[in-house]
Amino acid sequence: MNGFADLVVDTVRDPRGTAQRIIAWNLDRQTLYFALFAVAAINTLLASGPVVLLDGQIDPTARAALPILGLLERPLAMFAIIAGGLLVMVHGLVWAGRALGGQGSFADMLALLTWLQALRAAAQALVLVLSLIVPAIAGLVALVVAVVAFWLLLHFISAALRFESLFRAFGLLLVVLAGLFIGMMMLVTLTGVTAGGLQNV
pLDDT at position 61, please? Predict the structure, then answer.
């Protein structure tokens, strides 16, 4: 547990140095895939758990404004979106990054983004607990977490692809996220999400 806490602190304090440490572990793909699916399952539980416990009810107004919220009522679909989206993002970052002169490998990027997802799961659990105790503070903490996560992501992308500038990582991220967003919308459409939520098929 102390090792995990130390790595978390090091990640925030020196993200690029910590990224290089993680890359140096040279984890095999089987281990990385297992870690990815485990983290995706935890994130799914944290995202869908509260909705499922509340009899799967989402405010109709919120669902109408953002149909993708219907996925929270279907944990398996949510898990597929999280795990699949992360894998697609890793591939996209590596392929596009190499086109821009990057030199990283798929395993390097997968290890770093999986670790970032693990941190996200821990932060999400904290926000969930705070939302039950002090909702006003939970919103502020969630905002801080989002900003820090974005900052860490830029450093991780830069470290994985051996970029010297965070601006290159930022530009690459914008391109890949745009492609990922379009792909996710197509996937959501194919899996039956409509303006009224998920179809029962």
Answer: 63
9-47: per-residue pLDDT in tens? 999 999 999 999 999 999 999 999 999 999 999 988 887
Write the CB contacts of 61 (distance below 8 Å, at least 6 apart in sequence). none
Is the pLDDT score of 70 beyond 90?
no
d(CA 180, CA 175): 9
Q: Where are the alpha helices (DSSP H) in the chain?
A: 2-13, 15-24, 29-53, 60-65, 75-99, 106-133, 135-161, 166-190
Count, residues in the chain:
201
Spans of all domains in the chain: 2-198
* 164 pLDDT more than 80: yes
Rg of the chain over all Cα atoms, to the nearest angstrom: 18
Q: Of 34, 24, 40, which is closest to residue 159 (Cα–Cα)?
A: 24
